[in-house]
Amino acid sequence: MAQQHEHPTHAEPAPPFPEQEQQPPGREADMQPLADHGEDSYVGHGRLTDRVALITGADSGIGRAVAIAFAREGADVLCSYWNEDEDAAETKRLVEDAGRRCITVAGDIGDREHSLALVERAHEELGRLDVLVNNAAFQMVYDSFLDIPPDELEFVFRTNILAMFHLCQAAVPKMRPGSTIVNTTSIQAAQPSPQLLHYAATKGAISTFTKGLAQELAERGIRVNAVAPGPIWTPLVMMSFPAEKNAQFGGDTPLGRPGQPGELAPLYVFLASEDSRYISGEVIGATGGKPLH
């Protein structure tokens, strides 16, 4: 008779959480409980050895988790972020602790010149560009779309979708066959919340952008895919929603809790590596059991 082995389960935090909210742009160290980016759990297997990745929104949340995972898989990383210097410094420390090079660059990716400069810097200082992760985003809730300020409406579209055009237009000519682009869309693309309509609209655009760009870049040998997260425990959440909603965040998923950033990182590694070499133009969900369609 085969011997039975019990596999220990790791219980992730589930609501209710302490009531909390933050001012934009949010800060990792102020979250209760702290998010798990895979700092103590992610083990690399050389899937991205000596590759170079540019990751936007890499100071915190999903971006930090992806930076950690990529570094432990052997990649050097340029971490782009808005203005969260303290969080970015911690991401840089974690990447360098994995023995890889890390450049952190602050600025507004909605500014085309800044986005072009990010690509140039990654290519020049790290020697090449193999993976572009378009992850940065901004959201804020409103009782009605009538309340969304015009300047914020433009900022959200510039940050969430227009920046992807700028970054991809700069990156693709420098990418070799076998390179990859991974975009972060959202369950909001398929199940838009009226209170997040400007954010949800950009996420729908990202899904369409991913599927269309993948068709053009196939002849260059560049694959393009996207990850669609559901509720993930990040500073973006803490700065977007009121305290009472954050206390129950993710509790309405079939799994009964929000996801942790570190739980998404393996998806980005998979889509960036040769393990997914026959996959392009796909949107893969990580939603806690909520359907994407």
What features would you describe in this structure?
- The structure is a single chain.
- The chain has a single domain, classed as 3-Layer(aba) Sandwich (Rossmann fold).
- The protein has eight helices and seven strands.
- It has helices spanning 61-72, 85-97, 112-126, 150-171, 197-217, 235-240, 243-246, 261-272, and strands at residues 52-56, 76-81, 102-106, 131-134, 180-184, 223-229, 283-286.
- A seven-stranded parallel β-sheet has the order 3-2-1-4-5-6-7, sandwiched between helices.
- It is globular, with a radius of gyration of 18 Å.
What's the CATH architecture? Answer: 3-Layer(aba) Sandwich
Query: What is the averaged pLDDT score?
Result: 95
Low-confidence blocks of residues:
1-5
Task: Please state the structural category.
Answer: alpha/beta
| CATH class division | Alpha Beta
CATH topology: Rossmann fold
**Any idea what the CATH superfamily is called?**
NAD(P)-binding Rossmann-like Domain
Shape: globular
Order of helices and strands: EHEHEHEHEHEHHHE
N- to C-terminal separation?
A: 44 Å
How many domains, in number, for the residues? 1
By DSSP, the count of extended strands is 7
Major sheet summary line: 7 strands, parallel
Strand order of the largest sheet: 3-2-1-4-5-6-7
| Percentage of residues in strands | 5-15%
The radius of gyration over CA amounts to: 18 Å
Number of helices: 8
Short recap of the structure:
With 293 residues, this protein is of the alpha/beta class.
